[in-house]
């Protein structure tokens, strides 16, 4: 038999399977190990090649998906630009879309969420259109309308700029026709100067700034002229209620004849803008005189009680709060400074606001055991550990104003804004429905507990999340906003619109779709997932009803006529006293 072809006996076969055979022959063991490793490597290498091939295919699929989403987003923006003139900002030095815009364009999650919010707006709007067209607000469960503000079409006017920004052109045009042909302010109705200013004057001016359509400016001037007699008081501090037909002004009986701080100090943005757009200084003069009067006795801590005597212009003994009846006064001190493009002509507003922020710091406390940062209310010399959800506008305001400080103070106030936003988010997260109550109390060792337990679709927390996301780029704020939106969808959406809750613990629904839900809550949620070039904060300032007004540089306090009348505008593809119902 040839060598190399030796047969192997059965006994020889067995010994190769016996471990002892190899232990006694280390060279053969080493050889076997080398063969085993080589075979294993070939198998592993083949598996690796297959795995890498699968990963490569997966990555290619993801790139295709990203490209499809990017194409969809660019198509949507182009469509929006074609419809409205568009302001997708370009980097002039490179001629490319800015980094932040590209990041959003490439994020399919933002695109999907923005569309979900837009669909929610369509649901709210179509319900209003079907059951309450032309009336102030919709009662969704009753499927009827109610004139909460004298029949001024509050929801319609409040929604105009939201429809425009979202590119809902068909709905916008129908609303525009109603404004042109049916809106009538000659009503024998005692209107709130504050509510009418922030919703109606603000809504019309914002829509004018966005669209360039003069019908909105004309209507804004009409209603503002009807409000002006409210400022005809001995001090210039306005009465808070006026009859739109007869011009008789007064204050509500429950204030004891006093004017309310927020109601008297939250018309500056709108009336200054109206003077700028019309060239008529009378509107600006009326509202700026209020600040002049208040500044005469403005305290070092910048904190004013909520009641002011309209005859003397001095404050009355009453509570100090960044919640209801105080809040938006402080907001407008900052925002008039922003509106005037931060020039010396508006420095007084910034100075007064910074004093108020020193006062706010004296009201800040932390809960135990979780260290939630909150803003107390002040009554005389004592503090109350209570914070309104309305005061949740403050994180956004503080963040917006932080850049006007030096580096150290800027960081301090931004950190405070973020801490307060965490507290406000937990107003929502701490209830069974994940919707916030109207106010909260803080107790030693027990953190927070809900006080007044209704939710009326308020926007303040999502407003602050919008500012913090825009100013920090931290997507955590988008996630918090999305969670709040989902809670609204789960608890407040019904077949005929959106309703508030009578109780955030039980989830029992009320029967009112507040106009600010469309004006503010849904707008801020939409912008939270939109490119930062949509309503950029260096070109627009939001009034307290979320109506964006163009920033116009102030020079020596003189009204500047708006350029919208001469050229095509570059268009975009306190707080509320809402009622529970």
From TrEMBL:
Catalytic residues as annotated in Swiss-Prot or TrEMBL: 195, 327, 438, 460
Name of the protein in question: alpha-1,2-Mannosidase
Stretch list, region Disordered: 553-581
Cofactor(s) listed in the protein's UniProt record: Mg(2+); Mn(2+); Ca(2+)
EC identifiers of the protein: 3.2.1.-
Gene Ontology CC annotations of this record: endoplasmic reticulum; Golgi membrane
Reactions the enzyme catalyzes: N(4)-(alpha-D-Man-(1->2)-alpha-D-Man-(1->2)-alpha-D-Man-(1->3)-[alpha-D-Man-(1->3)-[alpha-D-Man-(1->2)-alpha-D-Man-(1->6)]-alpha-D-Man-(1->6)]-beta-D-Man-(1->4)-beta-D-GlcNAc-(1->4)-beta-D-GlcNAc)-L-asparaginyl-[protein] (N-glucan mannose isomer 8A1,2,3B1,3) + 3 H2O = N(4)-(alpha-D-Man-(1->3)-[alpha-D-Man-(1->3)-[alpha-D-Man-(1->6)]-alpha-D-Man-(1->6)]-beta-D-Man-(1->4)-beta-D-GlcNAc-(1->4)-beta-D-GlcNAc)-L-asparaginyl-[protein] (N-glucan mannose isomer 5A1,2) + 3 beta-D-mannose; N(4)-(alpha-D-Man-(1->2)-alpha-D-Man-(1->2)-alpha-D-Man-(1->3)-[alpha-D-Man-(1->2)-alpha-D-Man-(1->3)-[alpha-D-Man-(1->2)-alpha-D-Man-(1->6)]-alpha-D-Man-(1->6)]-beta-D-Man-(1->4)-beta-D-GlcNAc-(1->4)-beta-D-GlcNAc)-L-asparaginyl-[protein] (N-glucan mannose isomer 9A1,2,3B1,2,3) + 4 H2O = N(4)-(alpha-D-Man-(1->3)-[alpha-D-Man-(1->3)-[alpha-D-Man-(1->6)]-alpha-D-Man-(1->6)]-beta-D-Man-(1->4)-beta-D-GlcNAc-(1->4)-beta-D-GlcNAc)-L-asparaginyl-[protein] (N-glucan mannose isomer 5A1,2) + 4 beta-D-mannose
Organism, scientific name: Vicia faba (Broad bean)
